[in-house]
Amino acid sequence: MKKIKVMLVFGTRPEAIKMAPLALELNNDGHFDVKICVTAQHRQMLDQVLSIFNIKPDFDLDIMKPSQSLSHITSSVLHGLDKILSEERPDLVLVHGDTTTTFAAALSAFYAKIPVGHVEAGLRTYNIYSPFPEEVNRRLTSHISTLHFAPTQRNKENLLRENITDNVFVCGNTVIDAIKLTVKKDYKFKSSSLQSLHDCKNRIVLVTAHRRENLGLPLENICAAVKRLAEDFPDVKIVYPVHLNPSVQKTVYSMLSNIQNVILCEPLCVEDMHNLIAHSYIVLTDSGGLQEEAPALGKPVIVMRNETERPEAIDADTVRIAGIEKDNIYSLSAELLTSTSAYKKMSHAVNPYGDGRASKRIAEAILYYFGMGEKPEEFVYNS
Question: Choosing from 42, 96, 124, 210, which is the catalytic residue?
């Protein structure tokens, strides 16, 4: 039996977290010949994930440069993949989500006339500059792709409205698959910065903020809100893993250093991060992935952005949008820290994004496309 040659291409930490369980699923299925190509759009943070999931890339473009531009990432991925795809000729290229690696890899596969499978397809804000450049990356990738693996029914409906109707599969989000592999009872943190949390009785507030559109004044507003929370709630421990972007580091460390109940630390490995979410009381973030991960673990999320491409958890009332004004961020967070009823209303574990079987459904959908299996049943979220 001829195996289906599938090449997974990814380059950032969030992509790697969500592609890792899919890579493991495909590798364990005898129908597939799996190749892994990383672009290393994020070098250090990507390598952390590869190590934890024991994934060894077959190809590494190693494109990351200091202060790299979007143009550099795009052109480097296109140039690096051109020869690899020409020589390997996979039957299918799988990309994930909305990074510049995602779009450039999909475009490279299109140039090579190789079908593209888009994992986490159909997310939309309908604002091309928020998140930037991710919203346009995901839209363009959708129109290049042949197979569309939508996490939710709403994502599928977004695609249908854009007249993308063929080979759309609702599979759930692979991040829920990843959480099932990483969150463990009695977990011990690996990061030295988190050792004090093992016996910590304080409530933990997890903060992440790094998006391009939040650089400058919005990030200053976020930090001002975090500082006020730290001052007004001295019994709370605030943990902020700081992104390696120099612009993020400069703002965060200048505004939040030397505050007794604020821990500023290096970006965390995926196991530390997922288990830190599990130990947290609330999460403040401008990340997309944490809007999926935290609700699955029953943690209320305050989104520090003006819109979200992940409205399912808002409907389930475990996520609320604060925007980027410091007073809004503070007031929504303070309410959760002071009102038991408000907290209980949001702190119910929901899985609008998956049931831990997304990778299996994607594998089944690929087999179905190549005429080697039945069409998988769609993931259905029952609220």
Answer: 210
- Options 243, 274, 305, 357, the catalytic residue: 243
Residues pairing with 169 in the sheet: 149
- Which pair of structure tokens corresponds to residue 279? 């130990």
Length of the chain: 383
Catalytic pick among 98, 177, 309, 312: 98
* CATH code for the part of the protein at 189-348: 3.40.50.2000
pLDDT per residue as tens, the chain (383 positions): 799 999 999 999 899 999 999 999 999 999 999 999 999 987 877 898 999 999 999 999 988 778 789 999 999 999 999 999 999 999 999 999 999 999 999 999 999 999 999 999 999 999 999 889 999 999 999 999 999 999 999 999 999 999 999 999 999 999 999 999 999 988 999 999 999 898 888 999 999 999 888 999 999 999 999 999 999 999 999 999 999 889 999 999 999 999 999 999 999 999 999 999 999 999 999 988 899 999 999 999 999 999 888 899 898 899 999 999 999 999 999 999 999 999 999 998 777 899 999 999 999 999 999 999 999 999 998 76
Q: Is 210 a catalytic residue?
A: yes
Q: For the chain, where are the alpha helices, taking DSSP H only? A: 13-27, 43-52, 70-88, 100-111, 134-144, 153-161, 174-182, 217-232, 246-256, 270-279, 290-296, 312-315, 326-338, 340-346, 358-369
**Does 327 participate in catalysis according to the annotation?**
no
157 is a catalytic site residue: no
Segments of the chain assigned to CATH 3.40.50.2000: 4-173+354-370, 189-348
The reply to whether CATH 3.60.10.10 applies to domain 4-173+354-370 is no
